[in-house]
Every structure is written in structure tokens, then in C-alpha cells.
TrEMBL record:
The lineage of its organism: Bacteria, Pseudomonadati, Pseudomonadota, Alphaproteobacteria, Sphingomonadales. It comes from Sandaracinobacter neustonicus. It catalyses: Mg(2+)(in) = Mg(2+)(out). It is found in: Cell inner membrane. This is Magnesium transport protein CorA. The keyword Transport applies. Keywords: Cell inner membrane, Cell membrane, Ion transport, Magnesium, Membrane, Transmembrane, Transmembrane helix, Transport.
């Protein structure tokens, strides 16, 4: 789908839309003049002819899906034909319990913003909805800053959610919300491990996303300078207006990265604690069987002695031999139990 936003995004949020699938007939791509007049060109799940129409109209090569997945720094951010190309990762699917970090290309040109994506991050929906509240004449850089802010806000919400999940897991692992005598079942322990694994997976994706966002903001701060007549580098007029906003976004990204690192380390601590809890539960079960075996071993020995079929066993002829054997068996079981109890092993 190809969407074009006119420069006056307040009065004309959407100028053209090309969609395929769902039984809708395929519409022709907008003309070159329409594309060049847009301030934001959003290529969501672009079809080949849509990509080609934008490339022909603007004279720029758009990154394909393979290029967007490159991990080299030189492939993540670079300049091409006067445009700043930034390939970032955005976290999606947390609400649907299918988290993933999807690549998105942000291409900033002097007079327009191009986005290429093969997913539907909520940051784009938020920006699309807020276009009607943006003042008339909004430029491409202000739209990019707003989009990055939406991504940062969404990332902060995810980290807050993961923090609450970690607090809940901590209460279960350390038994703060449970009676001291209550033991966790095998299903409970397996559920805890799955939740810890899911939390760690989401935090890893958030970390990857924040790394790419930090690289993109640094690239914008360094790459949006120009040289005056004396050869000195200075911020352009547009950057002077938005530099505080960009610095604020960069500070937010750095703060979220620190928070993500803290939550990641806390998750690792919880994993170690959960494994320790599993060991304690296993040791408790083994201890019960061990104590039971030790307690019943002496009575078994007494019963085995008097169960032997020898002719000359004087105790077999005693009138009180049977009560004596039973008493000896009970006494040999009670004494070890009391001794274990006095040692605090039970």
C-alpha cells in the first residue's frame, strides 16, 4: 500500500492510496507529480510497481527487505542522493504475545519523508491519526521527529509492562505472595520459566530496537549540519528549530537503554533464583524420601532378622517375643525421627 500525505497535513492527511488484496481491485500508482508533492510517502507492504513509481519520481533507490535486515553499521545509516537513509528496528506483537523486532526504513529528504515497512507498528498508526492535529506546513523533519517520538513512547510502554511482569515474577519466585509452607508445583515452575524466557526475549528485541534508534538519532544530529561561507559547520535553520526535540529524543533513547539493561540483568537474576527455587523443591522431595528410608530401615532390619527360617532362634519360643519385636521396630523408627527433629533436618 502506498500512501501520500500532502504538505498541508492538517487539511489533507491523505491524498492517494494504492492497495491490493482483500478482494479490492488493484489501483494504478499515483503520478510522479503527486509523489513529488507529498511531504510523507508511506510504503507499507509495497508492491513492485509502487516501489518503482516512487524511485522513478524521486530518483532514489529504496532499500529492499534484505537491505533493511543488514546488521552492519554502514548498512543501517547512510546517505544517498542527498537523502539520509536509516534502517531501524521496531518492536511489534507484544500485545498479541508474538513479539518481534521488524525492520523499517526511514528516508529523510530535504522536502519529504519516505518510510518503507513490511509490518504495521503502532507508531505509524499514531502518527497517521495525529496528522490532522499537526500545524499546516509541517515539514518532513518534524514528521520524522514525531514518528521517532512515537516509537520511543511505545518502547517506554513496553519496558513499563516488562517491569511489572518482572515484579510479578519476583513475587512468585521468592514467595512474597504465598504462605511459607506452600510449595510450587511443577506446572507453576514451568510457567514461571516460560514467563521469564518471554520477558527476556522481549527485552532483547527492545535492546536491539534502541540500539538502532540511538544510531539513527546520532546520525541525524551529525548529518544535518551544513557549512557556512567561512568553512565552519553550523546547524541549518530547520535544525535550530528541531534540535532541542532531537536532543530530547536522544536523551530518552539513552535513558530507555539504561532501563532496558537494568531489566535484563534483573531478569537474569530472576532466572537464577527460579532455578534455585526448583533445586530447593527437588531437594525437599529427595529429603522426604531419604528421611523415610532412614526411619523405616531399622524396623525393616528387625523384621528381617526375625523373619529368617532358622531352627535355633531362642526368641521365637518366647511368649512375649512378638510384642517385643513390634516394640523394638517402633522404637527403632521413633528414635531416628526424634534425632532428625532435634537437628532441625525436618
Amino acid at each position: 500500500m502506498l500512501r501520500l500525505h500532502l504538505p498541508d497535513v492538517r487539511t489533507a492527511p491523505l491524498s492517494a492510496e494504492v492497495a491490493a488484496g482483500g478482494g479490492l481491485p488493484l489501483q494504478p500508482a499515483p503520478g510522479a507529480d503527486e509523489i513529488r508533492a507529498a511531504v510523507w510517502i508511506d510504503l507499507a507492504f509495497p508492491l513492485p510497481h509502487e516501489r518503482q513509481a516512487v524511485e522513478d519520481a524521486l530518483g532514489i533507490s529504496l532499500p529492499d527487505k534484505a537491505d533493511m535486515m543488514e546488521i552492519e553499521a554502514s548498512s543501517r545509516v547512510y546517505r544517498e542522493a542527498g537523502a539520509h537513509v536509516m534502517n531501524v528496528l521496531m518492536v511489534v506483537g507484544v500485545d498479541s504475545h508474538e513479539p518481534a523486532a521488524v525492520p523499517v526504513s526511514l528516508i529523510l529528504m530535504p522536502d519529504r519523508l519516505i518510510t518503507v515497512r513490511y509490518s504495521d507498528p503502532s507508531a505509524f498508526r499514531t502518527l497517521d491519526q495525529s496528522c490532522t492535529r499537526v500545524p499546516a506546513g509541517a515539514n518532513s523533519r518534524s514528521l520524522l521527529y514525531r514518528l521517532i517520538e512515537n516509537v520511543v513512547d511505545r518502547t517506554a510502554d513496553i519496558l513499563e509492562r516488562m517491569g511489572n511482569e518482572i515484579d510479578s515474577l519476583s513475587g512468585q519466585v521468592f514467595g512474597r505472595d504465598q504462605p511459607k509452607t506452600l510449595r510450587l508445583s511443577t506446572d507453576d515452575l514451568q510457567t514461571i520459566l516460560r514467563r521469564i524466557g518471554t520477558t527476556q526475549f522481549v527485552l532483547n528485541k527492545v535492546h536491539d530496537s534502541l540500539v538502532t534508534l540511538a544510531r539513527a538519532t546520532n546520525f541525524l544530529q551529525v548529518g544535518t549540519t551544513e557549512t557556512d561561507g567561512n568553512g565552519k559547520s553550523q546547524l541549518s535553520r530547520i535544525d535550530k528549530v528541531g534540535r532541542e526535540q532531537l536532543k530530547s529524543v536522544a536523551r530518552d533513547v539513552a535513558s530507555l537503554s539504561e532501563n532496558c539493561s537494568y531489566l535484563t540483568s534483573h531478569t537474569g537474576f530472576l532466572l537464577d533464583a527460579a532455578l534455585g527455587r526448583i533445586s530447593i523443591e527437588q531437594n525437599a522431595i529427595v529429603k522426604i524420601f531419604s528421611v523415610a528410608a532412614v526411619i523405616f530401615l531399622p524396623p525393616t532390619l528387625v523384621a528381617s532378622v526375625y523373619g529368617m527360617n532358622f531352627v535355633h532362634m531362642p526368641e521365637l519360643e518366647w511368649v512375649g517375643g512378638y510384642p517385643m519385636a513390634l516394640g523394638l521396630m517402633v522404637l527403632s523408627a521413633v528414635l531416628p525421627y526424634l534425632w532428625f527433629k532435634s537437628k532441625g533436618w525436618l
